[in-house]
Write a structure and sequence with these properties.
The complex is a heterodimer.
Chain A (H helix, E strand, L loop, with lengths): L11 E6 L6 H8 L2 H4 L3 E6 L3 H9 L5 E5 L1 H8 L7 E6 L2 E2 L1 E6 H10 L18 H9 L4 E5 L5 H12 L20 E5 L5 H7 L4 E5 L2 H7 L3 E6 H4 L6 E6 H6 L1 H18 L11 H8 L9 H8 L2 E5 L2 E4 L4 E2 L10 H13 L9 H11 L2 H13 L33 H6 L8
Parallel strand pairs in A: 1-2, 1-3, 7-8
Antiparallel strand pairs in A: 3-11, 4-11, 5-14, 6-9, 6-10, 12-13
Chain B lengths: L5 H15 L6 H7 L4 H29 L4 E2 L2 E2 L3 H26 L2 H77 L5 H34 L3 H27 L4 H21 L3 H22 L9 H32 L1 H14 L4 H11 L11 H8 L10 H27 L3 H9 L4 H39 L4 H11 L4 H30 L9
Antiparallel strand pairs in B: 1-2
Helix pairs in contact in B: 2-3, 4-7, 4-18, 5-6, 5-7, 8-9, 10-11, 10-14, 10-16, 10-17, 12-14, 12-16, 14-16, 16-17, 16-18, 17-18
The chains are: A alpha/beta, B mainly alpha.
């Protein structure tokens, strides 16, 4: 039996999550009994927002949590609450979308007649949004949009999307921690589940958020998703499983056991039959739709989880990679993912001063723990749960350079400074 | 009153109970039952019981009428029936947790029997689920077809309109080009072009409007969700959820079962024991012995494992009640002594007045945040903190899973509930009759005796009136505190439902509204009983 090898320091654990479909690996590991196989009794508890989730992990109320990729990094370098948080498991890729209100969408269509069909061509850039922003600015106002957290993937994605079309999303400075400096569009924090109601009430005119909150906007006809983060950066890292460094040091074996269960859950979620159809996603949606997990309607969760995405009620598209939980060796904690988030923090001024190239590498290595992942994976490999090709055994932790961005700029994790300097808007070093 | 017959004794006993508990409405029912002035009692019953019942029924009917007619984008307002269904669903969820818990603990024959029943049930429900799924697919296809049919002419009209408008625009563009040419050739007045262009933009707008009108129509049809589709989805979901639950039960009966897990651990212990006896090298012996001990330890650890229950509504109710109780006791423990001090000593009163006046109006939300920071600092590691270890080790209370969030919420409740009790206590103490105090002086009673014999007893009615207000305030504040601190309880239930945003969420929130209200009502009645039992007059309010 597998758990014979692991001498668990702690066998009853509490994990926090935010009501988003990408918490799936944690929920599935519990509901499908993967945690139990490792001898772990796990409670999975919904958290009201990312700040409180992080606080609860830091103060020991939770053992670990579903976190934004940027959170462990930001906490470790001390942007926001300072605490040394580490991660050994990336929960998923992609899974976010940018939704604008019906009103803004109509104006965008006006500005770009090519969008005036039921199935406009993707990716939709923010170019058609620019006149809307300008019109607001002329009226002495700024377009308000929502994102979920200052260091969330969503914040960097929506900034990237806006900046690519020449709309300045604002800089963070040491005085301006809201990131409104020079902004043409003001991005403010709204917890994911509150996005649709904030959009409907008009506090914001658009948002960038994970699922099911874009599909919810379609289902309730209160907004139109214009793009997904798959179009902004193909296969970008999204959430991680984070714990404090202290917890990881105290419970090394438990940590490995947790990662083992998560890998199995990821593998289960991405299992396909011969024709490439995802076989377990419907069951996963059924589980996630329970009120103590994500709790949204099964139909809404199913929209994006089973390989499709509704951009409008009339515009359902196949997006098999909208949620990736295990494919492309994605659950491995890549240093290059960490470096990308660090470059974005620097780009938008969350890191106020220029840092040398080595610092990026060192910081990523402080946060990402591939050794724990490899330990867990090698045990699973031995027991036959995963295939040898599922894990990048011999990597140096950096993915090969990629140009899969909406603007085609190349990202090489080993050249963070060059990457920073290749953008027009934002800090350059 | 020795001349009372036994029946009269029962009657007056009942009447007294009703009176003390504040259910005076039932007074005529009892009197009627004992045959006292039937006419008068019937009149009272119809006035004070039947009329309110009819009124409430009218409200329900009005609600039932208005709810489906008031649609918002966030969802429909649920009808009373839907709220009732929400109650049933929540109860089912609770029941399912119970089932899983008992499955987890079952062993031996019982376990096998249950496996057999559940397996049979799974087969049956699965079949049903497949049927419903097929039905749903059919209805879905049908609805789609119908929608397509309804949309078809509109879409065609839109395409046509667009084409026409485009043509018009093009012809106007050509015309304006022509005019410009004429102007360039000095054959026309530039004013003419401006005129034409002004006209043109107006026409373009009008054309766009006509397009928009059609688009809105299309959108409306798309937004419509046929009732039977919704019903089919609901029915299919319900059975699919049940199947999922039953399969999970099977898990808990087989691999996830406690006795099974213990047996497994024990088995590996025996195996290790076997390899210990057959081991020959010192290293192998040591390794085998270690493995024996480890397996034994695991077996004993597993045998103490509890089923990790998901929080259901009844659990949330109990936890909320416990939290408000803790907060209320804290509030009373502060308010009564401080109140007595203020009532006895005018300087103390003067000292505390500014504090009371400034802090009384502060919102519970602010208190919660403050307590999170202050109190949170005392529990750096809640898992091993002696207070929580002790509380969670207790029967009943342990099941409520006491954590720092509960303490924050309780402190917030205490902070907001302390003021009415404090002010009333001070008032009660300061208004003790001077004669009584003079008598005490004459008798040369010490401070303690004065307190316990005279001051406290005579101020009790007001103290309890204050406590009653405090409990009401506390219960109200608690829901907000729980929602914000995500401490399990009714507040969190409401907040989670709001966050879920599913089609049942609205009904669940309304359900919580009733549950909170009804519990608040009973808490208030409970305080009335306490208050009545210490008052000497019968004049205390019962509303």
């Amino acid at each position: 039996m597998a758990q014979d090898e692991l001498d668990l320091e702690k066998d009853s654990l509490k994990f926090g999550f935010i009501k988003l479909t990408d918490c799936a690996p944690i929920v599935i590991a519990k509901e499908k009994g993967f945690f139990e196989t490792e001898g772990l009794q796990v409670e999975v508890i919904a958290q009201p927002n990312w700040k409180q989730l992080l606080d609860n992990v830091i103060n020991g109320e939770l053992d670990g949590a579903h976190m934004l990729s940027g959170q462990p990094i930001a906490a470790t370098i001390g942007f926001g609450t300072k605490a040394h948080i580490v991660t050994a498991y990336t929960l998923d890729l992609n899974g976010n979308g940018i939704t604008v209100s019906n009103d803004v969408w109509e104006q965008m269509v006006e500005n770009e007649p090519a969008l005036d069909t039921e199935t406009p061509q993707h990716p939709i850039s923010a170019a058609s949004l620019k006149p809307v922003v300008q019109e607001k600015l002329d009226a002495g106002e700024k377009l308000q949009m929502g994102m979920v957290f200052p260091v969330s993937t969503h914040n960097y994605e929506i900034r990237y999307w806006l900046a690519t079309s020449g709309i300045h999303p604002g800089m963070y400075t040491s005085e301006d921690i809201k990131g409104f400096t020079d902004a043409e569009v003001e991005l403010s924090v709204t917890p994911p589940p509150q996005m649709p109601s904030a959009l409907e009430s008009g506090t914001i005119s658009g948002y960038c958020v994970g699922e099911p909150w874009n599909q919810q906007a379609v289902a309730k006809s209160i907004g139109v998703p214009v793009t997904t983060n798959y179009d902004i950066w193909k296969n970008n890292p999204e959430k991680v499983f984070g714990v404090t460094k202290a917890w990881a040091d105290e419970n090394p074996n438990t940590h490995v056991a947790v990662v083992k269960a998560l890998i199995r859950a990821g593998k289960w979620l991405d299992a396909t039959d011969e024709s490439g159809k995802l076989i377990n996603r419907e069951e996963a949606c059924r589980i996630l739709a329970k009120p103590n997990y994500v709790g949204a309607d099964y139909e809404v969760i199913k929209n994006s989880m089973t390989g499709f995405f509704y951009f409008q009620k009339s515009d359902k598209r196949e997006m098999p990679d909208f949620n990736v939980f295990f494919k492309y060796q994605c659950s491995y904690p890549w240093y290059s993912d960490g470096v990308w988030f660090l470059t974005q923090m620097r780009r938008w001024g969350q890191i106020p001063e220029a840092k040398p190239k080595e610092w990026y590498d060192e910081t990523a290595k402080k946060v990402y723990l591939p050794d724990v992942y490899k330990d867990a994976a090698s045990r699973l490999l031995k027991d036959g749960w995963i295939a040898k090709s599922d894990v990048p055994w011999d990597t140096d932790g950096y993915r090969p350079p990629t140009k899969d961005f909406i603007d085609g700029i190349e990202y090489d994790g080993k050249k963070p400074i060059e990457y920073l300097n290749s953008h027009t808007i934002g800090n350059k070093d | 009153m020795s001349d009372q017959t036994p029946i009269e004794k029962i009657k007056y006993g009942l009447l007294k109970t009703i009176d003390v508990s504040g259910f005076k409405v039932f007074d005529p029912v009892v009197r009627l039952f004992f045959g006292e002035e039937p006419r008068k009692q019937l009149g009272d019953i119809s006035r004070y019981m039947i009329a309110p019942i009819i009124f409430v029924c009218c409200c329900m009917l009005f609600w039932n009428f208005i709810a489906p007619r008031h649609k918002t984008k966030s969802g429909e307002v649920p009808t009373p029936k839907q709220v009732w269904n929400a109650l049933v669903t929540n109860d089912t969820l609770d029941e399912r947790e119970n089932e899983k818990e008992s499955d987890f603990q079952l062993s031996d024959e019982q376990r096998e029997d249950t496996i057999a029943t559940v397996t049979a049930l799974v087969a049956e429900r699965e079949k049903k689920s497949e049927e419903l799924k097929a039905e749903l697919a059919e209805i879905e296809a049908q609805c789609k077809k119908e929608q397509g049919e309804a949309l078809e002419p509109l879409n065609q009209a839109l395409a046509q309109l667009k084409a026409e408008n485009k043509k018009l625009r093009e012809s106007r563009a050509a015309e304006s080009a022509k005019i410009s040419k004429a102007i360039a050739a000095k054959e026309a007045d530039p004013e003419k072009l401006l005129e034409y262009l002004r006209n043109d933009s107006e026409m373009t707008l009008a054309e766009k409007d006509s397009e928009k009108e059609l688009k809105d129509k299309i959108k409306k049809i798309r937004d419509e969700e046929p009732k039977r589709l919704k019903a089919a989805q609901l029915a299919s979901s319900q059975v699919a959820n049940e199947v999922q639950h039953l399969k999970k039960r099977l898990d808990y009966l087989s691999t996830g079962n406690r006795s099974q897990k213990v047996a497994q651990a024990e088995e590996s212990a025996t195996k290790a024991l076997g390899s210990l006896s057959s081991a020959d090298s010192p290293a192998a012996i040591l390794a085998a012995a270690k493995s024996v001990v480890k397996s034994e330890q695991r077996a004993s650890k597993i045998s103490e494992q509890e089923y990790p229950r998901a929080a259901t509504i009844w659990f949330q109710v109990w936890r909320s009640l416990f939290t408000v109780f803790v907060g209320f006791v804290l509030a009373a423990a502060i308010a009564i002594p401080v109140g007595i001090m203020c009532g006895l000593n005018r300087i103390a009163m003067a000292c505390l007045t500014p504090i009371i006046s400034v802090f009384k109006p502060v919102s519970p939300v602010v208190w919660l945040l403050i307590f999170q920071i202050i109190v949170g600092a005392f529990f750096p590691n809640p898992d091993t903190h002696p207070l929580f270890v002790f509380l969670n080790g207790l029967p009943w209370i342990g099941a409520l899973n006491v954590n720092p969030a509960l303490i924050f919420s309780a402190c917030t409740v205490a902070m907001c509930a302390v003021w009415p009790a404090l002010v009333n206590t001070a008032l009660g103490v300061s208004s003790v009759e001077k004669d009584h105090l003079n008598v005490a002086k004459v008798l040369r009673l010490g401070l303690w005796s004065r307190l316990t014999k005279i001051i406290i007893p005579s101020s009790l009615p007001l103290v309890f009136a204050g406590l009653r207000i405090s409990l009401g305030v506390g219960w109200m504040v608690l829901i907000a505190a729980e929602a914000l601190s995500s401490s399990d309880g009714l507040g969190k239930f409401v907040w989670d439902e709001y966050q879920n945003g599913s089609s049942h969420s609205f009904a669940n929130i309304l359900l919580a509204c009733f549950v909170i209200g009804i519990i608040g009502f009973f808490l208030d009645r409970f305080m009335i009983v306490l208050q009545r039992s210490v008052s000497f007059d019968d004049g205390a309010a019962t509303v």
